Amino acid sequence: MKIEIRKDKKTLGEVAASDGAKLIRNAILERGRARVILATGASQFEMLAALLKQDVDWKKVTGFHLDEYVGLAMTHPASFRKYLKERFVDQASPAAFHYLNAERDPKAECRRVGALLAAELIDVAFVGIGENGHLAFNDPPADFVTTEPYLVVELDERCQQQQVGEGWFATLADVPKQAISMSCRQILKARAIVCTVPDRRKAEAVKNTVEGPVSPRVPASILQEHGQTTLYLDEAAASLLKKK
Predict the structure, then answer these.
(1) CATH number of the domain bearing residue 107
(2) Minimal CA–CA distance to 189: which of 125, 114, 102?
(3) Structure pTM?
(4) Phi, psi angle pair for 47, to nearest 5°
């Protein structure tokens, strides 16, 4: 795992986007197309905004959705489909983008989008880390065994509290209890992983991810097993790491 630290989240997002765009361009040069996974949440605002400014032929890029709440309409302010449509798809106009619709039959949706995802390699996975150390919506203890592309997961209380804290929901009771999440093993299948993590509130999770053992209790620690992962941190998120 490579670590890049920058002063603030804006600079951090720009560096992560620049490096991610290079990976996408290389895939297009190699194969004529690229396939990417995109994360959502407040931690990705700056990175996504910077990514759209990069020189990428988005008409040759297919995107996939990392996770989505079960039972949440796309019109809800917290919907990740809404987030990605407004913040990326409508602006980039990629070749295709495969949303996760978990409103009616989430298990069937796992199979549908999972088959599309598994059909060909993923060039770049853009991900983040949650306050509880989650990767996508794989809360602790995460399933490190399943090879299914997507699964329906239970959201723990700390994860739900993070969603309230970021302003996506008014109260804890409003946060869905389940979500569709890309599995940890599926994320590791990407050729390269760009993991963007700003803010002091993520510092403990970052420390446990980087310096602790690989454990389902810290889902993001599984990134230690992927040789082409780069963790992009601002100084606040990196504040608990041992000085080198």
Answers:
(1) 3.40.50.1360
(2) 125
(3) 0.97
(4) -65, -45
